[in-house]
Description:
The complex is a heterodimer.
Chain A: H1 2-6, H2 11-46, H3 52-56, E1 59-60, E2 65-66, H4 69-100, H5 106-119, H6 123-137, H7 144-168, H8 172-180, H9 185-213, H10 217-220, H11 240-249, H12 255-290
Antiparallel strand pairs in A: 1-2
Helix pairs in contact in A: 2-12, 4-7, 4-9, 5-7, 6-7, 7-9, 8-9, 9-12, 11-12
Chain B: H1 2-25, E1 30-35, H2 40-53, E2 58-63, H3 66-75, E3 80-83, E4 95-109, H4 119-127, E5 144-148, H5 153-162, E6 173-175, H6 178-186, E7 191-196, H7 197-205, E8 210-213, H8 222-226, E9 233-240, H9 246-255, H10 258-266, E10 270-271
Amino acid sequence: xxxQIGVTGKPNHLLRDQMIRLLIYLMVLCVSGVFLWILLDLIxxxxxxxxxxxxxxxxxxxxxxxxxxxxxxxxxxVLLIALLVAxxxxxxxxxxxxxxxxxxxxxxxxxRYSLQVLAGVPSIVFGLFGYxxxxxxxxxxxxxxxxxxxLACMLLPILVSTxxxxxxAVPESYRLSAAALGMSRTATLFHLLLPxxxxxxxxxxxxxxxxxxxxxxxxxxxxxxxxxxxxxxLDSGRVLALHIFDLSMNVPGGDAPAYASALVLIILLxxxxxxxxxxxxxxxxxxxxxx
Amino acid sequence: xxxxxQSIWITIAVLALSGAGAATLTTPHKLVxxxxxxxxxxxxxxxxxxxxxxxxxxxxxxxxxxSRGINDTRKGVADIGMVSRAMKADEQDLQAFTIALDxxxxxxxxxxxxxxxxxxQIADIYTxxxxxxxxxxxxxxxxxxxxxxxxxxxLELFLTYFQLKNSxxxxxxxxxxxxxxxxxxxxxxxxxxxxxxxxxxxxAQRGVPIKLLPMDGIAASVANVRNxxxxxxxxxxxxxxxxxxxxxKQFLDFARTEQAHDLVEAQxxxxxxxx
Lengths: 291, 275
């Protein structure tokens, strides 16, 4: 045993370490390479079209001319509704699963099981469900509201599982110390566990926003295809991802605006990510340092 | 904490305002069109001009395919359905109004030396009996067969014209919309496929490396679809459940007058008049 431990410093082991390190760096390079490639391709194809007018004008001539102003507004509204509905429901479920019922209880297992099934459902099925339930049965028609609610259903599994995992990753000793100090469970949750778990929750939120902003299939049948500026939440409004899909697959001569719209979508996601990271970081520091 | 509280209130205020907007701005004059993705961009443009001619009217266009147009019109979800093919025997409960014509053409890569294919050769290629361009006077290369997805009107038209069954076709690539077909063909020098002639002509004129093959000796061009000599063409229909009245009738009439012809041509279709 001694001998084996003693030989770790031998040159062939050093070489192996170096090799593995090199391989890991190569993999990382591949990952960022793919992103950079996509970004450069988008800038090359659509960068010239980007302007303030493109961001504010409504599409003309089936999207070949004009801009994406109304599309951007619809996208943000759909996203906002989806998050406003999914965040309270999803995060409350996560709190229940992680803090208020035993991990192996019947209810907990059932909730987790149904969320896992939900996570595996293809988005077109959510689209058909949203169309049948929100648009037809509840009479919302093709509307931003119906699209947002459909997306909210899609986001639940991501939000719940990341938030629950985040809470479970907080060491048990924190809860015990809080209990020893006489803190109530609610106070422990809001003043101690949530701030500690915040980065995991933020990661889940960002994953959710990314998935929602990139959704095409579920929204084609719910929020719809209308490219006019939405006047209310009951109007149909085309989202960016659907606009890109239509321009590149259905409109001859739509490639350049499709590239430009995709570039806007990526930039939008980057900006949302940066803002969300900053807010969470800021909130976590205030929570943990002053209280 | 103050920041969070503020942002929550702002959100609620925005939602309340837009809700109030919903109550006051909802117009009773709203037309909903759903169906064929081929017609949808044209219908959006028709709707835009119709709105400017009739203030206070809204035309909402939804896509999803010809069969969805049929279903939604039957269920009353849509006022008008968009169907990019001739009506079938079991669809006689709906009334169809043709607003434009569209041809379907066989396309190959521009570098392919083959200049024409007989209907028999096309059928043989799609059923796998001819697998190499050499047998057709081309290079020694395997033929990549590009077919349309199930439910597409162009597929139905193609199968009927060449008297094929979709189960007999042995495709290497299955595509959806026309523009996707153009991109697939442009990127594969040994492929053969079929798309809307207007879309293909638009691409070929702008340097996309594809070429349209003549059908039965007649050049595949928008001009030949217009004069009726090109054999493989389809009507683009708007359908309604009942005899159109009011706004629906006005829209259907508008879509088939001279006023709409430039819009039809701008989407690379062939306009027709009711007179």
